[in-house]
Sequence to fold (154 residues):
Amino acid sequence: MRRLFVSAAIVMLCAAVTLSAQGKKYGKALTLTETTKVSDIYGNLDGFNGKKVKVQGTIVEVCEMKGCWIALASDKEFQQIRFKVDDGVIVFPMTAKGQTATVEGVVTVTVESEADQLEHGKKMAEEMKKPFDPKSVKGPKTTVMIKGEAAEIQ
Fold:
């Protein structure tokens, strides 16, 4: 009887480890085999704009209002990329911060005017519950993000 109990415990432990290694899936299934470095995207914005990519990185921020985006750290210091989904389609938990995510979607590169940055900056400050200084906006700004389709968080 004791052997049966030990064997059952080992099987359950193995199953739990396997499930946790697979991670939590969000949205559609990941389909791409090749992983792109965030630094490669920033190094060739024109080449990646509109292209579907798979990126992996540590989650450094999560949308506090709706859980509609996560920001992934790059392989280069001080670089990150936002993975944004339509509101309500996927809701990322705040507990995802610090975990590793593999995401897939289409790279979008936009140039924001000063007026757009002011509007966007106020909205982001509200979402992140942080102050926004309008004086920090100086000239047009290039924004890079991934329009999200699929994610897996380990």
